[in-house]
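Appendix B: complex inputs.
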Amino acid sequence: MDWSFIQEALPPLLQGAVATVAVSAAAILLGFAAGAGIAAAATSGARGLRAFAAIYISFFRGVPLLVQLLLAYYALPFLGLDIPAIAAAVGTLGLCCAAYMAEILRGGLAAVPSGAIEAARLLGLTRVQTFIRIRLPIAARAMRPAIVGEAIMIMKASSLISLVGILELTRASQALAASTFLPLESYVLCGLIYLAINLVLMALGWERRRA
Amino acid sequence: MTAPFLLAEKLERRVGDTQILDRIDLAVQKGEVVGLIGPSGSGKSSLLRCIAGLDPITGGRVLVEGRTPTPGDGTIGMVFQQFNLWPHLTAQENVTLALRLVRKQSRSEAAERARTMLDRVDLLKFADRRPAQLSGGQQQRVAIARTLAMEPRLVLFDEPTASLDPELTTEVLDVIRGLADTGMTMLVVSHEMGFVASVATRAVFLDHGRILVDGPTKQVFRDAQEPRLRRFLATYLQRVAWAPEPEPATDNPALLEIIENPPGEGMPLTSTKPGA
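Resulting structure:
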């Protein structure tokens, strides 16, 4: 590979990578927060909330993300909502992520052995204390691989927002390929940058060895 | 006679069409150690769970010292078959958590109490281990320490050794035996007949959600008049190598021997279920 190409290519690609990481991080945080809300709705006693959660999860898991992005891109202006494209894209990515996060959280919390919770109850811990000190930490250990996996999926899925005109890593690579006539080199670099970002995420997911 | 320490009156639990507990009447005096025996599904564990307030009752009432206990009010401690330790916390943290959150003890106060309790079950050296790094018997002893640290007035043991091998069973039973010697009021569900015979002051035999026999342990084991209890005890004796045939408890010299001379600190009479 031509060294001068890398020198030329890296600055725009890294700029794109920064955008990718920023957009994905925002979407993952939104997804986690909204997912927690959806999981709470899914397990609540109110039938309406449970129905809402079921419909929400079915829609966002059942419709391709690209279609969701296109819907947001075209439907929001149609509804008279003037939202910047980037916000619509992050929002859609985050809301989609929330559907998956909700399932991970719901499953993880449900998998905490009831005996651990009963023991806490008999020893006098309040419901909130039991949730924060017992249920959440036990569930978190079990959920971590799935949450990291979802974060990686979102990081990669964020490449789709290039199609609604947002400049991030994939779009930066496309532009680079078009201007340099070196598509192979451009996309190899692009892929390596995605890989590097996701390797960092995967490292977060590795089980810490107990001393 | 003084008012009983624990009183269950016409206790009923029904789930759908299934009568799990059928008008249970049970009065336990302070300091009594009651062994609950009976076949699987007879309602022994349900009875404990209803007394503890973990399972809702559909009839009757439970009183401890004249008041209806609620889970977590500090009256009742419970030790479970599956230990139910919190896997993300060390042995010591398992004991300190409730002391700190419920008793509002300071960090050092709770730690000191936890270490005292762990020392009582001979596990101080493993205070910093997590449950996964402990044997089943050690985990159960931590669970006992965690329960006793909160100074319950009544301790319920729900098959505390049913998932342990005979050796580990012995170390747990020794701890419970020591606790009985301190005058703690206890209800023990166990399939360790030798242990029940030696530690319980009273034995209660349940079948199909009803109390069929209730009396002083020796009497219950020796004069097993009730046919269902006779059959039940006979199946245990079958498992003792030198008992060739199922036979009435009273005719069996092996059981009589154990009733007359309960095993002390040594091995319990029967092993746990094979493969358990």
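DSSP finds eight helices and no strands in chain A.
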